[in-house]
From TrEMBL:
This is CHAT domain-containing protein. It comes from Piloderma croceum (strain F 1598). Residues 943-1222 form the CHAT domain. Residues 1-24 are annotated as: Disordered. Transmembrane segments: none annotated. Pfam families: CHAT, TPR_10. The lineage of its organism: Eukaryota, Fungi, Dikarya, Basidiomycota, Agaricomycotina. Gene3D superfamilies: Tetratricopeptide repeat domain (1.25.40.10). It comes from the Eukaryota.
Amino acid sequence: MEDSPVHVGTNQGDTAASSEDEDESSQLFDLANSILAEFKDPVSLSNLDTAIYLFREALDQRAAPHPLRSESLKDLAGALVTRFSLTNQYSDLDQAMVSLAQGLHALRERVEALMGAGRQSELNAIIFAQHEKSEASELTELAKATLVNINQSAQLSSLDTAVTLHREALLRRPKSHPKRLVSQAGLAVALYARFRRTGYMSNIDEAISVLRDAVEACPESDMYRAELLIDLTAVLAAKFDRTGKILDLHEATTQFFGLANKNYVEASQLVNSGNELFDQFRDSGQMPDIEKAISLFRKGRALLHVRHPIRLYASDRLANALIFRFGRTGQRKDLDESISLHRGVLALRPEPHPDRATSLNNLASGLSTQFDKSGRHEDLDESISLYREAQELESDQSMSLSNLAIALLQRFDESGQLDDLDEAISMHRRALELFPASHHYRSDALNNLCGALTARFEQSGHHEDLDEAILMYREALELSRSDHLLNNFGDTLKIRFYHSGQREDLDEAISVHREALKLRPAPHSLRCSSLNNLARTLAARSDQPGQRDDLVEAISLHREALALRPVPHPRRSISLNDLANALHSQFKQSGQREHLDEAIDLYYESLDAVVSGHPSICLIARNLGGTLLDAHSHTREPEYLNKYTAAMRIAIACESAPTSQRFRAAKYWAHHAEHLNHESALEAYHAAIQLLPRMAMLGLDLQSRQQALTSGSDGLARDAAACAIRSGQYDKAVELLEEGRAVFWSQALQLRTPIAHLREVAPELEQNLRRISLALEQGSIRDVSKKLSSVEQEASYFRRLNDEWLAALEKVRQLDDFRDFLRPSRLSTLQGAAVDGSVVILNASETACVALILTSTGIQHIPLLDLSFVAVTKLVKLLRYAISQDGRDVLFVESNRALVDSLVQQVPSLSDTLQLLRQPLERHVKRESNTSVQPDDIFRYVLGVLWESVVEPVIRWLDFEKSEDPPKLRWCSTGPFAFLPIHAAGVYLTERTECVSDYVVSSYTPTISSLLGSIPASTDSFKMMAVIQPDTPGQKSLPCTLEELRKIELHVPDKALVRLVPGFVEEVIAHLPAISVAHFACHGQQDIQNPLESALLLQDGQLKVSQIMQQSMPNASLAFLSACETAMGDENLPDEVIHLGSTLLFAGFRGVVATMWSIADPDGPKIADTFYESLFKEASSTTTNSSGPDITQSARALHIAVAKLRSENVSFVRWVPFIHLGR
């Protein structure tokens, strides 16, 4: 029985009154129903289900001819009627009436038989059977108690209010009012609910009276009459349950079975026959089967009342059959009718109807199909919402998980939202777990997950996703060779071919696409998709030797596919783009202008056809740009170049496209614009650099960020700066270098930027920023080796967190004085780094090497004309060779001679000095000497080239002179310069010595921004930690480290020194937050494959870069890394400066002493002795408190210490590696 007007779709509810009374009556009616709706408590319904279960159990134990079987049937019927009143499940009322009829019939038969036989004692047993003690009676009593609790749960005052409101509404709707019948039904609902609560018969009697009046007033032709009769039947059955009066039962059964007439049987037979034909069609694909099935479903449905359960079932089957026919014929009216039918059925299955989830899934599926045809985002959003509701209702979630995941993937394809993709993969994995190997849906589940993994590979480039997808496709194909599966598998093979170049992948892809196409004959609705996919794969193979005919077939298939997608088909733009791609390829092969012109026209038409903001705009515009570039090359007409620039701007501006795709488009634009000397080159470079932080977004873990930056980003900032320099924009060059280098560290510093001023202006926004930054920083070092599903969920969470961070930044930037908050620094800000000394930026690009000298007043450009990019890389290789050969006194083998000869020949020798320096190398290469070349000879040559070609021009421009107390000069080296010891450049000959250290105290900085700002002075007492590792398991012994500690103890106050001999990882980590100076005398290890795994080797394991980055070190001032390879960066990412030294610098230490390569064990104590002597000498003479030494003098202290070591005439390889980083 209904407690809200579900009948509004009939002629009784569609007519609206215009009077004030109507407005008031509607408000009263709606308010009354809202009060009654509160009693549809899921907990109560759950208890009601329990009661019905118990009544059924009792009935099972009272099999005929048990004397109380009729009583059990009556109890069960009463509970079913109660549930019908709350849920409107027609099947409950059906079962209740059948139970009542069976119970009455059984009782009559039993009594008549006993009376006729004169068996009074057995008759008495029936009369007094309520006193029996049995399990059945206990179950019955428990069920009745549950029903009492349910009925007593409602607030009586609220029910009284509902009845009063319905009475008032009815008074305002006289007999002529179009909604009077609805009000009568509503009042009956309220009276019945109050009867359940109070047990007063006056309520149910009034409800019956009201419903009888309504039935009498309602015309027999009105569908609403049947609804009223159903409600009357239920109330009469409830009265009989209470009174036991046969007249009530007789009227109830008369009304009920009058509704369930002979049409029920006929309709059931028609629907069953339709099911057989529908199933037959799904096996055979024969259209006559589906046509006949649809006809039978229509006939069976027409025989039944609108809310009859069989009619609802027939509507479901008819709607599904129409969808199938639509899939074969493409007739839009079938899809529209199917969706309309599903909506109608869903409206008649309100929660908690047991079939509501089925209806939700059916309607969602229809809307998803409609979205494919219409492209209306509202259809897809509604579909996803319906799938989510269905998932919450279903106990077996396997299908709803799959359906929701498919819809989410559809939305990802349209919007590019990675959250949808991650959620889709997660749900597909959960669904797959619910389908065992033998399950008939497992192949579909595998197919769905594979599609999502492939989509993510195209976003992220992680090959694990692609390989997993292909393995799963093969498993699925062993279970089924459906057209969907074959089609998707072929696409994935083609994608792998593009990344691996394996020809067998391409051949297999073509084979499976041909097989899929055969399974989609015309007029199959998905034939167009198969045509496109086969054509794309053939076009890809046409680039292979001897396969030109493939391109001709591909173009033919693309034209056929395009014809199947007329305007305004939502996927027409895809077909246009694909055909244009094939014609562009044909132009490249044939050189025929008409192919080029048609391709360009099709690309423009594709852009016009695509929905605004669609992710595919980036790819289409990029393809158009490449074709326009070829047109310019072919015709030399300048208009094509301008159109190329416009197309690339469109591609870059498509924010819904994958960042990696936009980044590649920007690089493509920059490369060709620069090659053509076009004015847009700098704009293109800037666009690419601005995308770098998104490539390595903060939501990724550290390793993923580092991998993202490896994908073609290195050298971008240097090339951009070179482009700016050529146009005379030196300020822009510096800004681009700063923005495009050390992206990894710039992001890390963003999360630690002090924002106290923001707290004063917008405290809630500041608090939110701090919350997000802390979560992102902790998330960066998360464990990505856990279970795959949990890793994917974490990745999705942190990606959303990254979006929150970006959104919060935009809110801050809308505030006054915060417009540039955490944006890349402008030159005016960067110049603050040169207040206490100039900064020399050495830029190495393939077009030119230059020095940019940043001072507090401007920028000076010094072209390094004598040194090319190739020459710099050769110097790096020569130096590395010298380092690797140190201590080996062996003759050159042939391979070594060839290597050195090749390197030396590519480095210029423009002066007599350099000619002199290279003579030892040339003699050994030409075999003029039998003694081996010494590493020092190579060092002298490399350092001499650096002096004459790089450093001396800078020193001369700065007008520095030799000095006993030289000024500080900071070097910011980019590209291969980062691996060269600029601080040691000089001429080292017996007759002449001149070097950098004669003129300046050198220090390095990975970025200019890292020199800005200040770290608050510690309020704690000065503490220094010395970690000494004389014997590390698995490593060469370092006995001199103990001597190093003794040297430290000579200069550092005992109470300030924390000694860790040996050092344990957790112990060191525990001390990091409190110390000001950290000294590590141990082995270091650079991990080239994963720089974040680079580590200091301690007694119980590795102290890794990633672990150090987790620590908050508010007091950190200086770190001394007397260890191996602590300033050796990643050769693949020199501009990201990812090594131990820079890690400590960015982690908060103001300065770091590190080594460019392995040092000799005896040199550690010597350097430490002089270094700390110099550092603490001034501190002891000027301070009496515990504030510690002046760390700003650490570069000068190292300068002195290295000079002393060098004075001992040690080899270059021993004194050169020590460097200072930071302030």
